[in-house]
Design brief:
Blueprint lengths: L1 E2 L6 E2 L16 H12 L8 E5 L6 E5 L12 H13 L7 H6 L5 H23 L3 E2 L2 E2 L8 H26 L16
Antiparallel strand pairs: 1-2, 3-4, 5-6
Helix pairs in contact: 2-4, 2-5, 4-5
């Protein structure tokens, strides 16, 4: 696709005049080949980047995209074998099942138990501060409908979202650590 040199309007390839302003459109193919022959380089568009191969000088075109780091995964057999324990780690008090009966030799299970147990402890603390009953313990702290109570509700919701992220991570088998609880290592 060419552009008019006077008004900038898009012009069909091969058109001699701009349909908007009537300016003459120079022939793009002749200019490109003349410029390339004079400078000794090959032409490429701004949407592409290129690398010269050192052995033969051939130009290789590639898209100009940003590369994101690849996610690391646990071995697929380990994930399939222990996926249930990984998911249970993020379901509140059920974290005790993988903690007591899980395969503690598995790096996959250890990571999810550590994150799930840390998340459970944080959730229990937030609930107790918010005046809720946790595991039969009633909190004597009650903020009522104050601003601090609203902040604790938001913190509880954030921990719920992190638990969902943990379940997704356990199902996919990624080694990605969760925010807030990923660095905590209760099981060594």
């Amino acid at each position: 696709m060419a552009y008019c040199i006077r008004c900038g309007n898009k012009v069909e390839d091969g058109s001699r005049f701009c349909p908007k302003c009537g300016a003459e459109i120079p022939d793009q193919t002749e200019e490109k080949t003349e410029n390339c022959q004079q400078s000794g380089t090959q032409d490429y568009t701004y949407e592409q980047d290129y690398d010269r191969q050192p052995d033969n000088g051939q130009v290789v075109y590639k898209d100009n995209t940003y590369e994101q780091p690849q996610e690391e995964y646990f071995p697929q057999e380990e994930v399939q074998k222990n996926k249930g324990m990984g998911v249970l780690s993020y379901l509140g008090i059920l974290v005790l099942i993988p903690l007591l009966a899980g395969n503690k030799q598995s790096a996959y299970v250890k990571q999810h138990i550590n994150q799930g147990l840390s998340l459970f402890i944080l959730s229990a603390i937030v609930d107790l501060l918010d005046g809720e009953t946790v595991l039969g313990m009633h909190s004597f702290i009650n903020f009522g409908n104050t601003f601090l109570s609203e902040i604790l509700d938001i913190a509880g919701f954030a921990l719920f979202i992190i638990a969902i992220m943990g379940i997704v991570s356990a199902c996919k088998g990624t080694k990605k650590e969760l925010p807030l609880v990923g660095k905590v290592k209760i099981l060594k």
